[in-house]
């Protein structure tokens, strides 16, 4: 009898602790945020540029972690380094999935690509193959000659424009160059023979895609209205997907037909075909391969171009920064040869310029949405299950509690003082242009190599100024990425020995 009584008391005590823990979380408050309207939630308060609108709301409600309804969907927004750390480090595994987004169904091959697929064995296999054969440090070093060759073509086009006294449209040149690099490494094919109408159509297609995918589509947040496609987003993105799919299908057909020519020199797709079955039996399908190529041609071209363009724009706006960077390069490299990737570790000021551009102008202002199927507690707040997470990378880079004079372009902040040690590769939550945690951008190393090498080469090789009568436009064009509203068009004057451009 005594044993039974002791057991009963112990069981009641354990049940009490369980129920207390279970229901006490529900008594925790939701994170602060704006008042939600029926059906549409807080969507009207966000405005046309969600990254800045969400920053304004977070500061208005003093909410590093903010909760709001977007339509009928619950969304939590992290707007400071500590808030981002809470989700992407402490609760990293819980928020490793992606939500179902109606407008993205077509462009992601029904979530069969790496960027939008849910966390699991298939995603791990695709990520492993991409890192091992394409985006890791060893793979990047292996295709350095491709980057050098394509950059040489850009230099030639710019010298020709300078000889004709014509300005260059910087993002058009860069996107063409990057697409050719991605094409050669993945499919052994230069996508464009030269910068021109075909490459401009590709650039326009990328811009349309990233703009449309970045819109806050009502159908994504109010599923009951998705079939109406009130903003025309779904139809637009499906049209872009069809054009992209036709391009990718054609390239894969040509790739299959030329397999014998690549014997002994496999490209990324060849390696995927050989290693498409993982150790656990998971398989990378033909649809997954299309999705991977789609990821590489979208995330691998326009995002790096955007950062490089913003960095060069800021240097033109701040000529003392341009002058100091060129003086550093002249001292380390001179003017008798081209800059090489191996020179970049010896250019600390140039590296600081790149970091500052990523801080002030992240190519992805809001992280791709994360999703949790379970409720959780964050910093004393209750976050319900089935909640989307947005990390406001743009707001974090401009956080006044972290950055002195946060709206000023000051590369020197990365050379000395408390922020000098910060790097953008996901180790410091004060600067996370590639995200952080297990869903950090797989191409973070490639992105750093692209931006540093391209920007350094442009700055070392040319003097820059605006065309006569032109005014520098610093406005942003919001989308999934954050390009300049008006592309940078500038006069480039060669500053090296003529033999350096050969």
TrEMBL record:
Q: Is this entry keyworded Lipoprotein? A: no
Q: Which cofactor does it need?
A: heme
A GO term for molecular function: iron ion binding
Could you tell me which species this protein originates from? Rhynchospora breviuscula
| Residues binding heme, per UniProt | 441
Q: Which domain of life is it from?
A: Eukaryota
InterPro entries for the chain: Cyt_P450 (IPR001128), Cyt_P450_CS (IPR017972), Cyt_P450_E_grp-I (IPR002401), Cyt_P450_sf (IPR036396)
Family indicated by similarity? Belongs to the cytochrome P450 family.
Taxonomic placement:
Eukaryota, Viridiplantae, Streptophyta, Embryophyta, Tracheophyta
Looking up Pfam families in the UniProt record yields: p450
PROSITE patterns from the xrefs?
CYTOCHROME_P450
The alphabetized UniProt keywords are: Heme, Iron, Metal-binding, Monooxygenase, NADP, Oxidoreductase
**Annotated protein name in UniProt:** Flavonoid 3',5'-hydroxylase
């Amino acid at each position: 009898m005594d044993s039974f009584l002791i057991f009963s008391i112990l069981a009641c005590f354990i049940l009490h602790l369980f129920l207390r823990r279970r229901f006490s979380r529900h008594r925790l408050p939701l994170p602060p945020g704006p008042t939600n309207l029926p059906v549409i939630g807080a969507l009207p308060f966000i405005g046309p540029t969600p990254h800045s609108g969400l920053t304004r709301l977070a500061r208005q409600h003093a909410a590093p972690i903010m909760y709001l309804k977007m339509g009928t969907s619950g969304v939590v927004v992290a707007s400071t380094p500590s808030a981002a750390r809470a989700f992407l480090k402490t609760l990293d595994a819980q928020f490793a999935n992606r939500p179902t987004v109606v407008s993205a169904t077509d462009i992601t091959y029904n979530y069969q690509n790496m960027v939008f697929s849910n966390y699991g064995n298939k995603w791990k296999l695709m990520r492993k193959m991409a890192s091992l054969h394409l985006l890791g440090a060893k793979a990047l070093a292996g295709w350095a000659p491709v980057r050098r060759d394509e950059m040489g073509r850009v230099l030639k086009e710019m010298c020709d424009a300078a000889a004709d006294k014509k300005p260059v449209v910087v993002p058009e040149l860069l996107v063409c160059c990057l697409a050719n690099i991605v094409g050669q490494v993945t499919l052994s094919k230069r996508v464009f023979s030269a910068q021109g109408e075909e490459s401009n159509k590709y650039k326009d297609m990328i811009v349309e895609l990233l703009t449309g995918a970045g819109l806050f589509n009502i159908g994504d947040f109010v599923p009951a209205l998705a079939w109406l496609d009130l903003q025309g987003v779904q139809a637009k993105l499906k049209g872009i997907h069809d054009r992209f799919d036709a391009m990718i299908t054609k390239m894969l057909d040509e790739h299959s037909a030329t397999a014998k020519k690549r014997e002994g020199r496999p490209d990324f797709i060849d390696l995927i075909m050989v290693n498409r079955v993982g150790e656990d039996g998971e398989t990378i399908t033909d649809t997954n391969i299309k999705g991977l190529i789609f990821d590489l041609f979208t995330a691998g071209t326009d995002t790096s171009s955007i950062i490089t363009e913003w960095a060069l724009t800021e240097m033109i706006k701040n000529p003392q920064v341009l002058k100091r960077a060129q003086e550093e390069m002249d001292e380390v490299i001179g003017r008798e040869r081209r800059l090489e990737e191996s020179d970049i570790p010896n250019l600390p000021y140039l590296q600081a310029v790149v970091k500052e551009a990523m801080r002030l102008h992240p190519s992805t202002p809001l992280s791709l949405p994360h999703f949790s199927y379970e409720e959780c507690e964050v910093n004393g707040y209750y976050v319900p299950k089935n909640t989307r997470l947005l990390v406001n990378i743009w707001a974090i880079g401009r956080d006044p509690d972290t950055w002195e004079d946060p709206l000023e372009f000051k590369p020197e902040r990365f050379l000395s003082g408390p922020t000098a040690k910060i790097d953008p590769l996901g180790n410091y939550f004060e600067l996370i242009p590639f995200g952080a945690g297990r869903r950090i951008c797989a191409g973070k190393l490639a992105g750093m190599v692209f931006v540093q090498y391209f920007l350094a080469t442009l700055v070392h090789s040319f003097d820059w100024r605006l065309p006569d009568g032109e005014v520098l436009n610093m406005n942003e064009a919001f989308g999934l990425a954050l390009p300049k509203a008006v592309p940078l068009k500038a006069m480039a004057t060669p500053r090296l020995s003529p033999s350096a451009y050969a």
